[in-house]
Amino acid sequence: MTILDGKRIAADIRRELKEQISRRRASAGDKQTIGNRCPKLGIVIVGHNPASETYVTNKMKACAEVGIEAERIAFEDTITQEQLLAEVQRLNNDPSFDGFIVQLPLPAHISEQTITAAIDYRKDVDGLTPENVGRAAKGLPCIISATPRGIRELLSRYHISTDGKHVVVVGRSNIVGKPMASLLMQKHETGNATVTLCHSHTTNLKQVCLTADILIVAVGHPGLITADMVAEGATVIDVGITRIEDPNSPKGYRLAGDVDFDNVAPKCAYITPVPGGVGPMTIVSLLQNTLQAYGHTL
Ligand code: GUN
């Protein structure tokens, strides 16, 4: 059994990105091109969701490490949908931003669908706009949503092929499950999988999971996947990251994945830990997407 070390791979990729960005800026010399400035990312956060605050802090740190300028744009959760839409328009029109994200979840009075749909797809470095999702589904050039891109990269860096494999995705969110399934079924060397997507209304979840060569779980239900649901030799990717109160931990909580790691891991060929698996790969994908958006404005 091999643990897929997302933390280490993400650090490798950050080093590569840092070099790429500094080479690009150096080669721009004195010319008045975009290469003279850093790539710039806007990160919009609404309210004070503690998990979101942590993600945003980690994204800001990762940007600083590779040479991407990041601006945190924070609003109280009293902001109206119209005001937030106006901010999205401002960022769409401000040429100093190569890309921006609106951290999810948003407060209940704001529609995530309306806000994400308003983002200019060329600046949509989360890959969540209808344009990018549609392009991804059709196999057209696009910005791929961060978590699926990170998982694809992690598999590829460990030489785990999806070609001809049965991949079972559990969870149908717009942010992970749906784009992940869409990516894996593409006629491409990093796809070519037979994909089954399971969700809360799937009646025979255990039987379907047992047929998976690669099982990707993104539900947010700690311990959902138990050892009896995983075939010997499978690869298991755990996207779940739920905070569980734990007075014995210095932070007052610990992070739990969707997979019962201790009992599932001995059956697996490969498995991701939580934390340190998919999470750092998601952040590094955001950096790669930002660099992609920066390149497009050249
Ligand atoms: N909330 C949890 N993960 C993400 C992400 O990748 N992007 C955004 N915008 N919000 C999130």
In short:
This protein is an alpha/beta fold and 298 residues long.
What does this structure look like?
By secondary structure, the protein is of the alpha/beta class. 40% of the residues lie in helices and 16% in strands. The protein is built from 10 helices and 11 strands. Strands 1-11-8-7-5-6 form a 6-stranded parallel beta sheet. Strands 3-2-4 form a 3-stranded parallel beta sheet. Strands 9-10 form a two-stranded antiparallel ribbon. Helix 6 (146-157) packs across helix 10 (278-296). Bound molecules: guanine. Guanine (GUN) binds next to strand 4 and helix 6.
Distance between the termini: 44 Å
Quaternary structure annotation = single chain
Strand content bin: 15-25%
Bound molecules: guanine
Helix segment count?
10
Output the strand order for the largest sheet. 1-11-8-7-5-6
Structural class: alpha/beta
Model regions low in confidence, pLDDT < 50 over at least 5 residues: none
Main beta-sheet strand count, sense and barrel state = 6 strands, parallel
Secondary-structure element series = EHEHEHEHHHEHEHEEEEHEH
Helix content: 25-40%
Question: Nearest-angstrom radius of gyration?
Answer: 19 Å
Topology, number of strands: 11
Shape: globular
The chain-level mean pLDDT equals 95
Primary descriptors:
three-stranded parallel beta sheet, binds guanine, six-stranded parallel beta sheet, 298 residues, alpha/beta, 40% helix
